[in-house]
Amino acid sequence: MSERRAIWLSNAPAVQGLSFRHYEGDRDLPAIVDVLNRSMLADDDEFLYTIEDVRLEYINTANFDPSEDVLIAELEGQPVGVAYTRWNRKPEGVRLYEHHAHLVPEARFPGLRQSMVLWSEQRLKTIASTHQTPDSKKFEVWTKQSANEWRELALANGYEDDWHLFEMKRPNLENIPDCALPQGIEIKPVTKENFGSVFAACREAFMDDRGFSEDRWGEERYREFLEHPKARFDLWRVAWSGNEVVGGVGVTISEEENAAFARKRAWANHVFVRRTWRKQGIARALLAITLKALRDEGFEEAALTVDTDNPSGALRLYKQLGFVECAEFIFVTKPVQ
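RE: above sequence
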């Protein structure tokens, strides 16, 4: 470890062999992935990162410099914790300063995760101080709704519940209803040549989503879509009216998660319909068609996430198509002061 990258945390617990440093490049990725996965499982979250997931996130995310915005906690030279910070501008005049602190179960010494949270907040305060803007400024943290150490820590630090997100799954791919697209609309394969149009339509549709920000849907996001190893463009179902994209369903597959949790699940991560084409049954038809394609491909269940207050009625649609709530996430915030 380079001494130049070492960090001193004055409020860290006095644990023999505990030290902190910045991210030092790709050589850190295997250890970071191990920490993230073990920490999230301990916090009751069945999600597994891969090295490629993190690598793409680190090179394609706007308003995020991993060499400065990532803190690595080590015990006797072995990474045991990772904290990260980033920020985003929201269309409604809010700047969100996001962070998360991951810590493996055996290193959850009293006060350690708290010291990582304080480092993240101070880092974000420094960034926020350079933003001379009338926008309101808030810290944001996502937590699992179920009782876990991370949620308890966030609430103890003054964060309050802001908005909720459901993870939903269709536990089987049987009895999928027949839903036809409106006349004149057809499904075309997704290719590198037409993906620019697909991405632009998806971006437009998600402008109504609470998680949308211009920063998150820029050139970096476009590259991440194209390069992501879990993307299955052969299973995407995108509807067109002539040369115009109407809507679609994006699919990703995590072979690592399926193996770890003994399941055959596909994620319908991006269900979208452009504003001018809504209220015509297009989303219902596209999702039903996608579910049948997943079934024919050998998958046994499908999952997605949805804002509990989605303005387009997505939650009601998903329930009608057989999806059930299986987890709840809560985004908690507090003012940057």
